[in-house]
Amino acid sequence: MSADPSPECCHLDRRGFLLLAATAAVAAGCEAVNTGGSNAGGGAPRVIDAGPASAYAKEGVYPQHKEHGFFLIRHGSQLIAVSSYCTHRHCKLDAEQDRTFYCPCHGSTFDPSGKVTEGPAKRDLPIFATATDSRGHVMVTVSS
Which H helix or E strand runs over 33? Predict the structure, then answer.
C-alpha cells in the first residue's frame, strides 16, 4: 500500500493534474507556433479558474474573460477557449452578436472557432487547453 503524496488541499486528483499539465504544455507549444513565437507578456502559461462549468451550459460566446486573454465558446457538448487577441497586431477582439470576432484596430474577422475569415490577419486564433477540475470548475491554460 502506497500513500498518495498529493496534499489534501489540492482540488485536482493526480490524473487530472497530469492531464492539465500535459495540455498546458501542448497549448504553450501551439501558442508559440500560432503567434510567431511570442505571447502578450512573454511569461509562462498560467491556469485561470473560469468558474463553474454550469455557467457555460447554453450555446454561445462568453466574453467575460476577455481581459484574461480568452473567450469561452459553447458549441453543443464542446466548450473551447480561444484567444481574445488578434493574431495580426495583438489588438483585443470584440465578440459580435453572430458569434464571430472582430478586430477594431485593422478589421480582421474570425469565425466562432477562431478561423480567419477576413484579413489582414493570416493566422487563426490560438485555442487554449480547458479542463474541468474536481469541483466542476472550468480551468483554462493561457499564455500571459
Answer: helix 14-34
Is residue 96 very low, low, confident or very high in pLDDT (cuts 50, 70, 90)?
confident
Quote the pTM value.
Answer: 0.64
Q: How far apart are the first and last CA of the chain?
A: 41
Element (H, E) at 14: helix 14-34
Confidence of residue 18 (pLDDT cuts 50, 70, 90): low
| C-alpha cell of residue 64 | 467575460
- Here the contacts of 129-132 (C-beta below 8 Å, separation 24 or greater) are 129/20, 129/23, 129/24, 129/26, 129/27, 129/81, 130/23, 130/50, 130/72, 130/79, 130/80, 130/81, 131/16, 131/19, 131/20, 131/23, 132/53
B/e letters for 63-79, b = 16+ CB within 10 Å, e = fewer, are bebeeebbbbbbeeeeb
Rounded CA gap, 136 and 112, in Å?
Answer: 24
Contact 128, 70 (CB under 8 A): yes
119: which DSSP letter?
Answer: S
What is the average per-residue pLDDT within 104-131?
Answer: 90
Supply the Cα-derived Rg of the chain in whole angstroms: 16
